[in-house]
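2024-03-11 09:14:02 INFO worker-7 job=invfold-0412 stage=load source=structure_tokens
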């Protein structure tokens, strides 16, 4: 359980950091290009969320293959773990997006 929990927490914070860092750097880019940084940060945070989820779990196809092969084989434990990794990564990306909205005054 210790290995599972440590990977789940790592996936959460990787997705969180991708969304938060991408939005912040997008805001800096908006300032440099003389555009409104708040709206740019909000747009980037919403658009990057799915990519943060994919990057946190290590790609888009491999987790789906693990789920498919184990579900069809009747071995549910690895499939459930993989689904939980996806859930933790989604929560991290969503929390990062909500933090950006809160900082920008839209949440």
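2024-03-11 09:14:09 INFO worker-7 stage=emit residues=107
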């Amino acid at each position: 359980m210790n290995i599972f929990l440590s990977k789940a927490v790592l996936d959460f914070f990787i997705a969180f950091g991708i969304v938060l860092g991408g939005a912040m750097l997008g805001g800096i880019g908006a300032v440099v290009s003389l555009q409104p940084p708040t709206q740019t940060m909000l747009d980037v945070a919403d658009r990057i969320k799915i990519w943060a989820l994919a990057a946190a779990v290590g790609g888009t196809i491999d987790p789906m293959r693990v789920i498919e092969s184990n579900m069809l084989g009747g071995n549910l434990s690895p499939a459930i773990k993989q689904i939980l990794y996806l859930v933790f990564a989604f929560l991290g990306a969503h929390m990062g997006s909500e933090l950006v909205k809160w900082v920008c005054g839209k949440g």
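2024-03-11 09:14:09 INFO worker-7 stage=report msg="The longest helix spans residues 2-32."
2024-03-11 09:14:10 INFO worker-7 job finished
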